């Protein structure tokens, strides 16, 4: 892959070049994919499609982000946000998107939780960054996304149980 294309994909089609908080910009740039899938594909197929997309981007992202590290000349460069795309998509796997208040609220919860978990990296997630190359870049965000998915489902369950919706 050409260095220019690698840089373009690794930076989330340029979203990671925005400042401040490139990871937040990358996460925001990733959100239209699950929204569009939810609007165009009925549940549960939209979640299955999102899972397949996230898994494929994770797999190919291993190589792309490894090459991006070499291009930027540093470990886990801030403009590289392809990992945020994957983490964001994992975080909303349990929320079939529809334009209803419940799903919109849960997408917002997932966005905020994912950004918090990605920055703080609790429960050993930070240690995952020690893996070499693209694996170290991608896996911590996938783990933060999984933790966010669990947190978002807890919030959904709690609000459903209280009759909030």
Q: How do the strands and helices of this protein lay out in sequence?
A:
Layout lengths: L2 H8 L11 H9 L1 H9 L4 H28 L9 H10 L9 H20 L4 H4 L4 H29 L4
Helix pairs in contact: 1-4, 2-5, 3-4, 4-5, 4-8, 5-6, 5-8, 6-8
* H/I helix tally: 8
User: Radius of gyration, Cα only, in angstroms?
Assistant: 16 Å
Domain count: 1
The residue fraction in helices comes out at over 70%
Structural class: mainly alpha
- Which H/E pattern describes the elements? HHHHHHHH
User: What do the pLDDT scores average to?
Assistant: 95
Poorly predicted tracts of residues: none
Overall number of strands = 0
Q: What is the 3D shape?
A: globular
**What is the CA–CA distance across the termini?**
48 Å
**Which sheet architecture does the biggest sheet show?**
none
Query: Proportion of β residues?
Result: under 5%
What is the gist of this entry?
Helices cover 71% and strands 0% of the residues. It has 165 residues and is mostly helical.
């Amino acid at each position: 892959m050409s260095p220019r294309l690698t840089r373009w994909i690794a930076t989330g089609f340029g979203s990671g070049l925005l400042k401040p908080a490139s990871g937040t910009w990358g996460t925001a740039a990733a959100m239209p994919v699950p929204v569009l899938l939810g609007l165009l594909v009925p549940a549960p197929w939209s979640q299955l499609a999102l899972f397949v997309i996230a898994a494929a981007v994770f797999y190919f992202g291993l190589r792309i982000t490894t090459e991006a590290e070499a291009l930027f000349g540093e470990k886990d460069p801030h403009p590289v946000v392809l990992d945020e795309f994957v983490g964001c998509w994992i975080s909303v796997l349990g929320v079939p998107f529809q334009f209803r208040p419940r799903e919109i609220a849960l997408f917002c919860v997932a966005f905020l939780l994912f950004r918090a978990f990605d920055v703080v990296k609790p429960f050993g997630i930070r240690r995952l960054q020690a893996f070499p190359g693209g694996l170290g870049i991608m896996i911590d965000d996938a783990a933060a996304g999984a933790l966010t998915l669990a947190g978002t489902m807890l919030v959904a369950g709690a609000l459903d149980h209280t009759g909030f919706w």
